Structure formats: structure tokens, C-alpha cells
DNA sequence: AGAACCACCTGGCAGC
DNA sequence: TGCTGCCAGGTGGTTC
């Protein structure tokens, strides 16, 4: 599933290719996404110029000057630049038609994603309650320590809560906690200052590494060129239940937290 | 306010 | 080989 590094990779890849392009319209083939795609999307975007592409958490914000698009890739979404005449596949639900003859094609087999129009995307209700960006300079151990006081939820659930910290999905939550040497079951409020700093550092390190590697966390993820990413090959714990820890050799554990799989090493990751 | 749980969706895969 | 049924997972919403 596209996590923050994948979304950032897509954003960085698209910027030089679509910025300052005029939109000739939008072609919607399937409007039933997480929320319905606006019926009049074609009229909304027509003749607008793509002036910017920002990101908030995993939301991509396309600045069209007078309004903008909010796109979320959900769990299986991707965006590809492709010639307009290229026939769309089964799950390629909509095209944004560019003046250069290409289209930005939105594909999402599971339809958990979203394509919305908004006059002021930065102020959309969906973005209003989002927490701190883990890649922002002000994100550090002090922030984690302060946010986690008085909270009893397991630390893994805590770092995946987008109202507190945005963009950390299941895979990178598992990887970050391993790198920080923290047991995913540890109540957030029990985190020491030292652990908070280790965790902040581990989260940033994990995300930066994934972005540098081209960012991918799902077999069917493709970037804006249609190439698969390769970060999934270097997971330390995710999906490796029963296999030996790459650090200490102990078999890795698998538990369920908040209806999601957690993977950890009981030797390397401590509860205090 | 915080925590727990549910709904949405479909490709992929295990089991028969 | 083909069918059934379960799982994964981000996020907003509901319930406790």
C-alpha cells in the first residue's frame, strides 16, 4: 500500500512532469471511490493550470490556482503519466487530461482511494485534524514524549494515529519500532525520554531510507513511470514471522494489534 | 477525551 | 483445476 514514502516519491516524480501544464479536462470512468468523485469534475478542472503539488500526510494536493484536487491513493492506488490514447485498464478509474497529450491516470483496484475537488484544499475538513509531519524539522523525541503522556494505547497504535502523527502505516510502524528497539505493545505513556528520541530518529530514518530507495511497500505499487519500487526487499521484521531476526537470530514474533499484524523481535525490542 | 471497533473493497492465496 | 472463503490494510465514523 502506498505509505508516506511512496506518496512523496510520486509527488517528487510528478512535479517536473506536470507543473505548469494546463488541464483540458477530466475523464471519469468509475466515480465510486471511497467518496464519490464529483460529477462535474471535468468542468471543475477544465482550463486550470497545475501550479503546485503538495503533500499532507498521504494526501496529494494539486494546486490549480482557483481551487484544487485532493487525491488519496488508499491501499492500492497509483498514478501514472500515460498517452491519452492508451486504452485504460479495468481499475484505471479516471484520467486528468494534460495539454501535452498525456494524461495523469488514477488506478485503484480496491477503490479505497479518493479524488476530490475543493476550493481551498489546504483547509479541507479531511486535513483539518491531521497531526505532525514526521519528516518536518520540528518532529523529534520531545514531540513524541509530550504527545504520548497519559496514553495507555500500545506505542504501535499510537504512532499510527494520524491525528497525532501522519503518514506512518503498518509496515513502517513495525520497521521503525524494530529500529528503535521498542516493543510494539509498550503503552505509549510509558515511553521514556530516551526511547522517545530513539523512536523519532528511527521513524525519520526508516522513511528517508524508503524515499531514497524509490519508496515502495506493496507488490503492485508502481511509481509515475510504471516501475515497481524495491524497498520491500529490505524489511527487517514486516512479514517475517518465525524467520530469524537479522540482528540476534531469534525467531520473529507475530501478534495482532488493533486488527493489524505486528511483527517484532522479543530479543531486540524491549518493553521498558 | 480516549479507546475499541466497524465499514469500505478486491486481489491473492490457502485449503479443500 | 476450480471453487470457497479468508486476509490485508488506511482512514473516517460510531460506540462505549
Give a short overview.
With 272 residues, the chain is of the alpha+beta class. The chain is 25% helix and 20% strand. It contains seven helices and ten strands.
Number of helices: 7
**Helix-strand string:** HEHEEEEEEEHHHHHEE
Mean pLDDT figure: 89
Rg from alpha-carbon coordinates: 20 Å
End-to-end Cα distance, whole Å, is 31 Å
Number of strands: 10
Counting helices, strands and paired strands, the structural category is alpha+beta
What is the molecular shape?
elongated
What characteristics describe this protein?
272 residues; four-stranded antiparallel beta sheet; elongated; DNA-binding
Explain this structure:
- By secondary structure, the chain is α+β, with helices and mostly antiparallel strands.
- It has 7 helices and 10 strands.
- The longest helix is centred in the C-terminal third of the chain and has 20 residues, at 193-212.
- It binds a DNA duplex (16 and 16 nucleotides) through residues 1-3, 34, 58, 72-76, 91, 108-113, 126, 150-153, 157, 160, 162, 169-171, 218-220, 258-261.
Topology:
Layout (H helix, E strand, L loop, with lengths): L3 H15 L4 E6 L12 H5 L6 E5 L2 E5 L4 E5 L5 E6 L8 E7 L3 E6 L6 E5 L6 H4 L12 H8 L6 H5 L10 H11 L12 H20 L40 E5 L2 E5 L8
Antiparallel strand pairs: 1-6, 2-3, 3-4, 4-8, 5-7, 6-7, 9-10
Helix pairs in contact: 1-7, 4-7, 6-7
This protein binds a DNA duplex (16 and 16 nucleotides) through loops.
Amino acid at each position: 500500500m502506498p505509505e508516506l514514502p511512496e506518496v512523496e516519491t510520486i509527488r517528487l516524480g510528478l512535479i517536473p512532469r506536470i507543473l505548469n501544464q494546463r488541464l483540458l479536462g477530466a475523464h471519469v470512468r468509475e466515480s465510486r471511490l471511497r467518496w464519490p468523485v464529483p460529477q462535474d469534475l471535468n468542468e471543475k478542472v477544465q482550463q486550470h493550470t497545475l501550479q503546485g503539488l503538495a503533500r499532507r500526510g498521504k494526501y496529494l494536493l494539486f494546486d490549480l490556482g482557483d481551487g484544487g484536487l485532493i487525491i488519496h491513493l488508499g491501499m492500492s492506488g497509483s498514478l501514472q503519466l500515460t498517452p491519452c490514447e492508451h486504452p485504460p485498464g479495468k481499475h484505471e478509474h479516471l484520467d486528468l487530461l494534460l495539454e501535452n497529450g498525456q494524461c495523469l491516470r488514477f488506478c485503484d483496484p480496491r477503490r479505497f482511494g479518493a479524488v476530490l475537488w475543493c476550493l481551498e484544499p489546504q483547509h479541507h475538513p479531511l486535513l483539518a485534524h491531521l497531526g505532525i509531519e514526521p519528516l518536518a524539522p520540528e518532529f523529534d523525541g520531545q514531540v513524541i514524549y509530550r504527545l504520548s503522556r497519559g496514553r495507555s494505547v500500545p506505542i504501535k497504535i499510537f504512532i499510527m494515529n494520524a491525528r497525532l502523527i501522519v503518514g506512518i502505516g503498518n509496515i513502517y510502524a513495525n520497521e521503525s519500532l524494530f529500529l528503535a528497539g521498542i516493543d510494539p505493545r509498550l503503552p505509549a505513556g510509558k515511553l521514556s525520554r530516551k526511547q522517545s528520541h530513539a523512536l523519532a530518529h528511527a521513524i525519520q530514518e526508516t522513511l528517508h531510507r524508503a524515499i531514497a530507495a524509490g519508496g515502495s511497500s506493496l507488490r503492485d505499487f508502481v511509481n509515475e513511470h510504471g516501475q515497481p519500487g524495491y524497498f520491500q526487499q529490505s524489511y527487517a521484521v514486516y512479514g517475517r514471522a518465525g524467520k530469524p531476526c537479522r540482528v540476534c537470530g531469534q525467531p520473529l514474533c507475530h501478534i495482532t494489534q488493533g486488527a493489524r499484524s505486528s511483527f517484532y523481535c522479543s530479543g531486540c525490542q524491549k518493553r521498558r
